[in-house]
Amino acid sequence: MEGVLHQIFSGVANGCIYGSVALALVMIYQATHHLNFAQGEMATFSTFIAWALIQRGLPYWAAFALTVAISFVGGLVIQRVILRPFERAPVLTNVNVFIGLLLILNAFSGWFFDYTVKAFPSPFPQESMLKTAYFSSHEVGTFLVMMAVLLSLYAFFRFTPVGLAMRAAAQNPDSARLVGIRVSWMLALGWGLAAGIGAIAGMMVAPIVFLDPNMMAGILLYGFAAALLGGVDNPWGALAGGLIVGVLENLLGAYVIGTEIKLTVALVLIVGTLTLMPAGLFGKHVVRRV
Amino acid sequence: MPDAAALLEVKDLRAAYGATEALHGLSFGLERGRITTILGPNGAGKTTTLRAICQMVRTSGSALFDGHQLVGKLTEEVVRLGVAHVPDGRGTFTALSVDENLRLGAHVRSDKARVGEDLERAYARFPRLGERRRQQAGTLSGGEQQMLAISRALMLRPKLLLLDEPSFGLAPRIVAEIFRILRTINTDDGVTMLLVEQNAQLALELADRAYLLETGRVALSGSSRELMANEAVRRSYLGV
Questions:
Q1: Domain residue spans in chain B?
Q2: At what angle do helices A235-251 and A2-32 cross, to 10 degrees?
Q3: Does residue A30 sit within a domain?
Q4: Which of B8, B17, B6, B1 is nearest to B53 (CA)?
Q5: A281 lies in some domain
């Protein structure tokens, strides 16, 4: 019984990470109707930046904050410089751009920081009040950090004028322009936020999976599964999807299929969701006039 | 003829959707503080004219607004100059609340302190919106959504209000209420208006000046009184 509980709790911690990767995907999807395949590599690159800062002797949380800020600006710049020319381009063009971005960032990670696997520190002390029989302090810490991220995002979108403008721009770009919202900049802001969230997810997952240029490849698949399962247009669905995927993956991995082929769970979920209920658990069915 | 009183001076305005030109060189002026209406059959280019002023379609020619050339600007820049557009279909943010819709209308204003004041004015003008301020805009009736669209446009404190078929799909009683309020907005706040309407009778009663559009060109223009007396207009648009 204790084992099952442990698996569930650690699934929740992983689920938070998948959920936030999913949230980053959803955020860009809502505004542009594109899935950002480079989301994982962006997060990996951010985590490398954090690693380099910590190597230079920066305290963990200073490096953390600086990394989020750099990632935010990086995401903004990527949208402005690389993606803006393709704003009106067909979907497949954008997919190509995303894949190009993925390869470039992956190569940059390897080029600047080499391909050796690196240990990444956890900010949460091993022996602390957070640690219990069921979960490690890093798992509790991850959970708390991700909840803090979600709450601040919620507050940002719910209570600030810029958050409101971003929601308006995502929902109805034409009307948003008619009230003077600079829609294109709202997309850039969305990219910035997604990059920031990705960076945090990367820094939280790195102590568990270790840091190398391909660190996020698997995580991104879980993130995709979470986003699709939750309904790709619903931020709360993304979080719920993440938790479900995290727990399911851990339980199946521990008791049913073994840890070696855990990633299959994500792929099965992706294919299953898309064929059986394309709108996901909490998404809305979109009927389009043709 | 340069007209000192003109708020908007449109010359040889052309607009195209892809390869199809919808406006073939339109020229007209809007007098400051007055209501002007554009009449015409379906497909004459009425909606396109409004969309061209807001740069929502590919446009060439000239549209001088208060000394600023609109052609070539982004829609959001046109709005920032003080042009508010109530589009066809109303452009409501359906998933947002009534309150949020109105606040978005004031998005570009710098005098944030007075936005609250204007919110209350909007609710006083349309009490039914006030009762539903926390409600999702998509759950409102057609008439309420039109009231919301007009109120949202006014939150900009615009110099020019563009109205695209505000009577569309609404019950006559609601239409009468909306047109009565448009009249008071014009007289009390001095907002210049450009009204596109299918209902020529209503439009000519409200407007000071009218243009008749046919297949992307101005076919006739004059004061509302003149157009109402015009035999061709009476036969084709007023049904008398």
A1: 6-94+156-238
A2: 150
A3: yes
A4: B8
A5: no
Could you give the maximum distance between any two Cα atoms of chain A, in Å?
Answer: 60
- B-chain residue closest to A183, CA distance: B76
pLDDT at residue B179, rounded to an integer: 95
**What predicted TM-score, i.e. pTM, was given to this entire model?**
0.87
Q: At what angle do helices A235-251 and A263-276 cross, to 10 degrees?
A: 130
Cβ neighbours, 10 Å, residue A238: 33
Mean pLDDT of B152-164: 96
Residue A282 is assigned to a structural domain of this protein: no
DSSP string, A202-233: HHHHHHHH-B-TTTHHHHHHHHHHHHHHH-TT
Please indicate, yes or no, if residue A287 is contained in any of the structural domains. Answer: no
Tell me how many domains chain A contains. Answer: 1
Cross-strand bridge partners of residue A202: none
Q: Which among A168, A172, A182 is the nearest to B76, CB-wise? A: A182
Is beta strand B192-196 parallel, antiparallel or unpaired with respect to B160-164?
parallel
Q: What is the pLDDT of residues A154-177, one digit of tens each?
A: 999 999 999 999 999 999 999 999
Burial class (CB within 10 angstroms; exposed 0-12, middle 13-18, buried 19+) of B113: exposed
pLDDT, tens digit (0-9, with 9 covering 90-100), for B162-197: 999 999 989 999 999 999 999 999 999 999 999 999
Strand partners, B14: B24, B60
Rounded Cα distance, A49 and B100, in Å: 39
CATH for A233: 1.10.3470
CATH code of the domain occupying B6-94+156-238: 3.40.50.300
Look at B74 and A177 and tell me if their CB atoms are within 8 Å: yes
Q: How confident is the model at residue A5 (pLDDT cuts 50, 70, 90)?
A: confident
Tokens 């991995």 sit at which residue?
A: A253
Which of A172, A182, A183 lies closest to B93 in CB terms? A172
Three-state secondary structure call for residue B14: strand
Closest listed residue to residue B30, CA positions, set B17, B13, B55: B13
Interface of A with B (CB under 8 A): 161, 164-165, 167-168, 171-172, 174-183
Domain that holds residue A270: 2-276
pLDDT band at A214 (very low <50, low <70, confident <90, very high): very high
Neighbours of A72 (CB within 10 A): 20
The answer to whether B76 contacts A168, with C-beta atoms less than 8 Å apart, is no
Distance (Å, whole) CA B26 – CA A267 = 57
Q: How confident is the model at residue B1 (pLDDT cuts 50, 70, 90)?
A: very low
